[in-house]
Each structure stands twice: as C-alpha cells, then as structure tokens.
Amino acid sequence: MVELLAPGGSRDMVAAALENGADAVYAGARGWSRRRSSFELSDEALRECGCLARAHGKKLRVAINTLPMSREIPALLRKVEKFAAWGIRDIILTDVGCISEVHRCFPELSIHASVGCNIVNGEDASFFKELGADQIVADCRLDWDEVQAIKEAGVGVELLIHGTTCFTYIGMCWMSSFHKQKWEVDEEGKNHFLGSPNRGGLCYRLCLQKWELEREQTGAVVARDLVLRNDAFFGLEDIPRAIEAGVDTLKVQGREYSVPLVAGIVKFYRELIDDYLADPRQFSVASWKERLAQLRDERDAERAERTATLFQESAP
User: Fold this and answer.
1) Positive or negative CA dihedral for 41, 46, 52, 53?
2) Where do the domains of the chain lie?
3) Whether domain 3-171+231-295 has CATH 3.20.20.70
C-alpha cells in the first residue's frame, strides 16, 4: 500500500493531516530542518505529535536535514537518541556523514535521505543505501526510467506529488546566502547562517524577483523583468503511474501553508488514492482536475503572500 506523507508545520497541522487521511507526517526539529523556526517543532511538541501519530496507527517522521558543523554533530546525535527513546522511528537526514553515523549508532531507526541529497539515478540510490538509508526522496524532475532504476537499487522511493521545483537542484542554491550574510547561535549552541536553509536559515526566493540580463562586454541591459523558474505543482496525473511503478511514498510539501489548506490538500489526495486503488481500470483523472481547481487557487494565493513577505524581509 502506497504511503501518503503530509507536512506538519505545527501541532495543529500534524493533527489535521492525520485526521484527513495522511499515513505519515513529517515535522522539522527546531533549528535543524530546512524551514524557519515558526514552522518547526520543539522537542516536546515532537514527542506529543509522535504519541498522536501512534494513537492513529500512523507515523511521525522527524526532519533533521540541515548540514551540521563538526562540533554540532554530538548535539544532533543526542537529539536523535532522545527521539528514539520516545518511540519515533523515522528520521530525515541530508548530510552523508550524519546518515552514516546515525545508522551506526541507531540501526533500529529508519533513515530517509532528504530531497536535498539530490538523488537522481540508481547509483546515487545504491550509495545512500550503503550509508544506511532505507528510503530516498527522489528529485521531482526525474523521468520514469530513472524512478525505476532507483527502485531497483533496493531502497524505498518517495516522490513529491505537491511541492515546488527550483531553478537549480533543491539544496544546491546559495543565492540567499550572498544576500543575507549573518550568523546566529541558538540556545542549544547551533550556529545558523540566515541566508541558507542548509544551515537552518531561510531561502528568500530571490529567484522569483525580477532580474535584468546584461550583455557581458558592454554591460548593456538586453532583457528586463526576468524571473527564474520556481514553480509550484500538483502531480495529479502522475499518481496512477507512481503507484503502478511501486513508489512507496507520495509526499505533499507545505509546512508554511495554513492548516485548513493542508487539511484540504491531504483529504483530496487521500480520496483520490483510495479511488484509484479501489478500481484502477475505472479511474478517471478528469473529475479530480475539477476538484483541484479551488485548492490550486488557495495554494497560489498563500504562496504569493508568503513570497511577498520574504521579499520585504530580504530588502536591504
């Protein structure tokens, strides 16, 4: 049975996702995942959400997917040890050294290699499996031959069915870090670089601002108001094929969305997946496209508002 994985940007969002049909919810450990702290959870909140998920017969997956400095790794391992003692069994990681070390110290845990690992082929998947990953998040632009090759590597495969693309690979853009160069240290001693999600900071979506293209030798402007690609998408039409290909998890992004919007998106996908599984031969995507229209409008409005806020924050 394919797993529907939903975002948990707050305790209320975790509860709403579980109540609307998510099989698992992922939430970020505060200061250690690729979101700002208002969309991450404290350790105590993660403990409560883990209990709530188990009460529903479901899972909580904790993201610790920033890139730590050497002196921060002991704190990361203490945090994982705490979560494991609380019954949390699924951890999302990006750093290859941390994947290896967490697997060595906690072999009973299920490690998920984050989308930030940029796994794009079967050899990548085999490498992360050797490190200790049980499941990988595939890049959202792979063709089906590559998805099959990753599946054949013997790891679980997770595909995004709602999220955003990026003009470069996720986790590989440092544009914001050139714009906001400021370090902060939190109460746990973790060092954050505010311009980089990889270090617990922010992506200010500078790619969505309007750019000018200049000719290299003369400096003359040859194009104005250019916007780099960073599209949000719903992977509606890919779901039947993903299920038939044996994809293990279908993931919805959106920890920064409102709780009602996430609840609506999760409910939509839960009902669509169940409809397909009930009778694949009679399934038609056309009726689901109509139902998706309102959710898309709500998603676009919230994303535009969030982007405008980030533009204001990034202003000199």
Assistant:
1) positive
2) 3-171+231-295
3) yes
DSSP state of 62: E
- The answer to whether 150 and 125 have CB atoms below 8 angstroms apart is yes
* pLDDT tens digit sequence for 19-41: 999 999 999 999 898 877 778 99
The tokens 């000199």 sit on which residue? 316
Q: What token pair was written down for 161?
A: 């069915």
E strand segments, the chain: 3-7, 24-28, 59-63, 90-93, 110-113, 135-137, 156-164, 183-185, 191-193, 211-214, 221-226, 232-234, 249-252
Contacts of 277 (CB under 8 A, 6+ apart): 1, 243
Paired residues of 63 in beta bridges: 28, 92
pLDDT greater at residue 162 or residue 44: 44
Q: Token pair for residue 153?
A: 């590597």
- Give the 3-state secondary structure of residue 264: helix
